[in-house]
């Protein structure tokens, strides 16, 4: 038990660390918001095991509402953020590649000068030629007449040679000197020139700042989306769970069912889970729903309570009002073994519901059998399929009440015609149903286990968070038909 509790604490801690990284560290800069988020993450991580332990032991039932609601919200935050990891990774990679690649078609900045010692490439215009080229306006140099003029030939040649020598040696004229000085000043003081040397380019610091802002924007968007989605799913789930069970009807043929019993109605209810978040009204509306279908047989398939008779006996009192033509029957679920199963077996019988304790009885041409839950094995009160199903007339159809669907594997050798079960809650909070499928062969509705038809009802209540998503609470009316 200590090892299991320790494992829960470690898992909860890791989940909250992940939530802190995605909801606090990534979207916020260092400061008060991040510190407040860190404190909240620690307190919420403590709240989860405190709720599970406190409610189970009865020492802190006041934690049930805030604690269980946070468990649901935590679950959906984890699911949504995990789903967002792939698009988040793709977006980050795209942003990094965009920042690392210069813009296509970028040209060197005006005023950029070649590195020291570099010589212009062939065909490259010199500063002077750029100034004195044809069509240049605003030049301080006089235009040079290159036509032959005997009177000025020597002068023209001398000026041209002087300019070429000045260009070769790196000397510049007044205007060029001014331009070079301005260019050097720009290079010294302009952040653009220190990184790319391209018109419109960003500096490394500007690129870094822009990248940080983009990552913050991405992280904040993901956090907001996850928060809104998780809150919406949790709110919807609370409304569904507390809104009362729906009535579902299903017809199931039994090959050996006598024609006289064609149309026999079984009202199947499980996982009522009377506890700290429910009350007497929860039991009252379930009883009203069962009585509205005029059932022949009522099957209460375990997990009736989450507490002792002393704590919850008054909540169960309305069950005495269940009406049916041929009686109401009960088998234990795993939660009865957490809550004083022997006292509850006695209490249920006092309310007029007959417990089937690894036994069967004949109900108008039908064998109705019930086995204790597998959870009872730990206290020496487990299922006994031989006692419940052995030595019977194989020509008669038999319906087995067993809390867990997986019990059908042990029931299959006895030729069971139909097993009715609960336990799974239909997954209660999708996509948790995918994990339930790993443990139970049928999660909700009608299926087959080793050749045995098994009907699994979602249950009328909830366990833990008062939240149901994708698995509404239900009471099922099974109509047995002759093929």
From TrEMBL:
CDD domains, per the entry: MPP_YkuE_C (cd07385)
InterPro entries for the chain: Calcineurin-like_PHP, Metallo-depent_PP-like, Metallophosphoesterase_sf
Ranges of residues in domain Calcineurin-like phosphoesterase: 265-426
Transmembrane domains' residue ranges: 6-24, 36-55, 67-86
Biased segments, Low complexity type: 103-127, 176-188
Taxonomic superkingdom: Bacteria
Presence of keyword Lipid biosynthesis: no
GO molecular-function terms, A-Z: metal ion binding; UDP-2,3-diacylglucosamine hydrolase activity
Entry keyword set: Hydrolase, Membrane, Metal-binding, Transmembrane, Transmembrane helix
Biased composition (Polar residues): 137-170, 193-202
Region (Disordered), start-end ranges: 103-202
Keyword RNA-binding: no
GO cellular component annotations of the record: membrane
GO biological process: lipid A biosynthetic process
Protein name: Calcineurin-like phosphoesterase domain-containing protein
Native source species: Couchioplanes caeruleus
